[in-house]
Amino acid sequence: MTPCIILADDHSMIRKGIRLLITSRLGYKNVYEADSCNSLMNELKSVPCTHMILDVIFPDGTCLEIVPIIRKLYPDVKIMIFSMQPVDIYADAFRQYDIYYYLPKSSNEEEISTCIKSFLNNEPYHNKNKSTAIRNNPFSSLAPRELEILHYLLNGYKTNDIAATLNLSNSTVSTFKKRIFDKTGTTSLSQLFEIASVNNLGFFAGTSKPKND
User: What domains are there in the chain, each with its CATH number?
Assistant: First the structure.
């Protein structure tokens, strides 16, 4: 089957660059684009997608929120993560959804081309970007749902806002919040924001440091 690919990234230049590489260098023609979680889900309804290349952070959320839905609705779709987000934070979380391709945007052109070619050909790919220092990252032990809630906390969302956004109860969000603090060794949102910044953990568009814990 000829691959039908969706590129999901909120930066148009990234999408255009990867699309050009796929169509001109690799010779695949069926390439579609999405710039948010919502537009990605809408695109999936009309596109017979076989492969997806996803960023992690979007203006309307993270792909961790929609990957479980995609897996239920489209279990055979192959997924690759192409992001600036640290691999040692997210790799284990994505493996839970059978996602094994995780390529940093900082990779050189040849490595990007080789990885994407292997991905589209459904071939195994081993690269040098696998983390060797996972234990040193305070966020590496967070489960997928904890990572989802972490991003909303870092973007200044209150407990009731997170609960409404993710369709959870306030008490459930509070429980996850406590787990995040415990696992990262923090006691406040300010501390959480500081170590997130140190570890290059990205936030949604327009994020500023929370003013109150």
Answer: 5-120 (3.40.50.2300), 136-198 (1.10.10.10)
